[in-house]
Amino acid sequence: MRNFYSVFKKRFKKFIPSFLVSFYHYLLGFFSAVFYKFPSKKIVVIGVTGTKGKSTVCYLIYSFLKEQGIKAAMSSSDLFLIGEKKIENKSRLTMPGRGFLQKFLNQAVDEKCEVAVIEVTSEGLIQHRHCFIDFDVAVFLNLHPEHIEHHGSYENYKKAKGKLFYALSKSKVRKNLRGQRVKKTIIVNADDFESDYFLSFRAEQKISFSLESVLGEVRFVIKPSLYKITSKGLDFVLDNKKFHSPVQSKTFLYNLLAAFAVMKSLNLPVNNLDNFVENFKGLPGRMDVISAKGFKVIIDYAHTPVSIEELYKTIGTIFKPKRMLCLIGSAGGLRDKWKRPVIGEIAAKYCNYIVITDEDPFYEDPNEILRSIEMGVKRYLSEFEIEKPVEIIPDRREAIFRLIENAQKGDVVVSIGKGAEPSIVYEDKVLPWDEKAVFLEALKNYSKISTKTS
């Protein structure tokens, strides 16, 4: 019934003028703020946006604040945290609507939280879910083509993200944290092509983080003087302080730098965070490594062509696998159909054995999605006259078992798209899902499980 309602709502909305839908969401945001007495005026609010890395950065900021003895709240696609209270995000909505954020902020204020960290999406921004929230810090991580069919163009997608920074520039409420006034701050990834656009908005201070670039118009630059990524993790030097992380990912290093930049914006130290960084293994489903007998399994949430290619390159550089066995898919719901054959082409380029499977078909025909991905795979293999085994196995559990069955010493099995998501959504059903648990089951079934898992 719930899926029928969702499909009906999406199709019915096509007949409603867009300005009426927009006005409805705006009014909903206003009345929610009034009902909860504008809670964001009483708490420091940090908004984090970008195509990838938002959940990890939000959790890092929350954890860094906790390390400094500051009680914080966090809203993300994975979970909600209010102080020590943890609430599962069962809706899988990254930025929930219907007044949820105003209620969340009100609960955070009631629980005496000093800072709230909110994961901000383009969808939430165009539906005014950020309206009547007084942001103090806005963080831009990166921008890759995503949700293009929904927004109409890449430029519209970018401008939707910009609404967060426009809201920050218009916020007049001034707040204090631990006796110091918090400046309205924009934080940007200087290495991203769109950094200038997000820096163009007005703010009291601007901070960049980078591995490669330095922007002249910012007050602070968070940039390691040295960094390296090996099979043992990340090592980098920041402000003459050595840091080590067990996470083997350049993307994670960017996430760390973004969280450090937030600490800088709040006038909080970072040199006492080395123990946390060394012991944090990353969020579940993000570069999640399982050591099997003679080979490794890597589970990652990568779902854009850019992030998928970066993941494959990183694995090739760090682990130097004999073969890469890849599980690939793409979300349905008529979203980003353009990227399905592109994902197939990327897999054909980097992987030695490919299994195409369901990710989240939603209300689309799953077979149509799978065939579109397969078309990209075959197009690349044909163009370069390469032969590689390619299978379509819609059942994701069966697909995982097939990969583990074929894994040999020196291989790396790579799964993308699901990460730690708790379900696979079809038009007529929602299947509970635990990607890591299924991989461990498959390893045990084929007697390839190792005592060392992470």
Topology readout:
Elements: H1 2-12, H2 18-35, E1 44-49, H3 54-67, E2 72-75, E3 79-82, E4 85-88, H4 100-110, E5 115-119, H5 122-126, E6 137-140, H6 148-151, H7 154-170, E7 175-177, E8 180-182, E9 185-189, H8 195-199, E10 205-209, E11 220-222, E12 226-230, E13 233-238, E14 241-245, H9 250-265, H10 274-279, E15 288-292, E16 296-299, H11 305-319, E17 324-328, H12 339-350, E18 353-356, H13 366-383, E19 390-392, H14 396-406, E20 412-415, E21 423-425, E22 430-432, H15 435-445, E23 449-453
Parallel strand pairs: 1-5, 1-6, 2-5, 6-9, 9-10, 10-11, 16-20, 17-18, 17-20, 18-19
Antiparallel strand pairs: 2-3, 3-4, 7-8, 12-13, 13-14, 15-16, 15-23, 21-22
Helix pairs in contact: 3-9, 11-12, 12-13, 14-15
Q: What does it look like?
A:
It is a single chain. The chain has 454 residues and is α/β, with parallel strands linked by helices. The protein has 15 helices and 23 strands. The chain has helices at 2-12, 18-35, 54-67, 100-110, 122-126, 148-151, 154-170, 195-199, 250-265, 274-279, 305-319, 339-350, 366-383, 396-406, 435-445; strands spanning 44-49, 72-75, 79-82, 85-88, 115-119, 137-140, 175-177, 180-182, 185-189, 205-209, 220-222, 226-230, 233-238, 241-245, 288-292, 296-299, 324-328, 353-356, 390-392, 412-415, 423-425, 430-432, 449-453. It has a nine-stranded mixed β-sheet, sandwiched between helices. Strand 2 (72-75) and strand 3 (79-82) form a beta hairpin.
